[in-house]
Amino acid sequence: MSNITSLADITRVHAQNQPDKVAMIFEGREWTYAELDRESSQVANALVAAGVGPQDRVAHLDKNGPEYFSYLFGASKINAVGVAVNWRLAAPEMEYILNHAGAKVLLIGEEFLEHYEQMNLETVSTVVVVGNAGSHVDYPTWISSANDDDPNVEVGWTDTSYQLYTSGTTGLPKGVELTNRNFFEMLPAASEEWYFDTDSVNLVAMPLFHIAGSGWGVVGLYNGGTNVLLREADLVELLRLIEAYEITNALLVPAILQFLLITPGAQETDFSSLRCMVYGASPITEEVLAGSMSLMGCKFVQAYGLTETTGGVTILRAEDHDPGGPKSHLLRSAGQVWGDVELRIVDPETGDDLGDSEVGEIWVKTIQNLKSYWNDPAATDEAYPEGIDEDGRGWFRTGDAGYTEQGFLFIHDRVKDMIISGGENIYPAEVENVLMAHPEIADVAVIGVPDEKWGETVKAVITPAAESDPDEAALIEYCRENLAHYKCPTSIDRLDLIPRNPAGKILKTELRKPYWEGQERAVN
Questions:
Q1: What is the pLDDT of residues 480-515, one digit of tens each?
Q2: Do the Cβ atoms of 161 and 184 come closer than 8 Å?
Q3: Cα-Cα-Cα-Cα dihedral of 170, 171, 177, 178, to 10°?
Q4: pTM of the entire predicted model
Q5: How many CB atoms are located within 10 Å of the residue 308 CB?
């Protein structure tokens, strides 16, 4: 697919080579590559009529749907930039992103018009609605007003094609600028690693405002396969789609895999069409991984990466998944670098490189690294402390803590989630892994809370398994059997549901809040 060098080229190339191939399926409807190409050209011309020019931002705010892709490819055809907005946010947070991006056109789902009414948008001049539009224009009417000639605007290799906002678990969201080069220099290798080809039937189940949703959808279409879209994470429907469309490739976050294992009908689902299940975006416990592998019986591949790295920068390949076998310790790793990726483990205090098995901040150098944070030179400089070379590469600080062992990366935690108790560094992921192996625990988050003696101490917040009532003292004792005592929880609280962001990451900031109220700062 070397002739694909922009998002726009995806529909152009496949519409020419396989016009009648089904590109996309959504709720029983199908779009061929010819139809997707034609519709995206209509979008492009409608955007031009709305005053959108090269590198202008156009935004999408809706649950997963086919319009997202025709809009994204249409924007690319005029060298505009698609901005996907998290629909789970509150109206003021959505407003911040739309204004920060300077979006000119907003494509919005009918169910989010109430949010729109609460927003004061500074740059949006056109609002197009998927569904019942009220006083606005609806999507079919809007595109039918435009012709379907491809505008063929020149698109630069290093032009921004895509702007996603970081989840903002700390501070305000940042706009991550990803280029055509970020995607298309990496996709040939990624497609091979993830077992994609023209015959792939790809399940797009993660939210499209996330790289694990939209980026994953791009992989399927880049290869000329068929994307099957799931509007939102309905697990029963997800299982039905796998069987009904004979899904070959899928990406799910660990939280979804965890819940699938206990979803009615999962054990009876026919997974035989699946070639490969890619998982990532948050830590996974060995129990969930082994259970999922046993349930689905296909290859499992882990990807570790960030929005800022256009997705995966390390990969734990299928042959390194060996529950109960001699390589089972690798299941705790995030795999090895691949493609052009280079990795360093750096002491965040001194900036010195660390050796094998020493925990520090993970720094990454690759062509996949973001161009910059939109309109935020200070954040960009902080992310690239040594700058960017003439080839567009630089060492990017991930903010994640980890170590390497024999070429494999092990993630410890977010640097900022580290608990320091009595001068000892404690990484919550380690404690969470131990607790998740306990049969009476369904979910767990570990945080640091204030302590007079040690500064901070470890607290576990658990969701008990169904019909279980675990004893606090017994759980602490269980941890002490598996971990150094200083790492073990000194108290355990219960929650019906542990709060997570759409990527499945636990919202530690939210969990910590009540315990740190009245304290001068949130670490001791």
A1: 888 878 889 999 999 999 999 888 889 988 899 899
A2: no
A3: 10
A4: 0.85
A5: 25
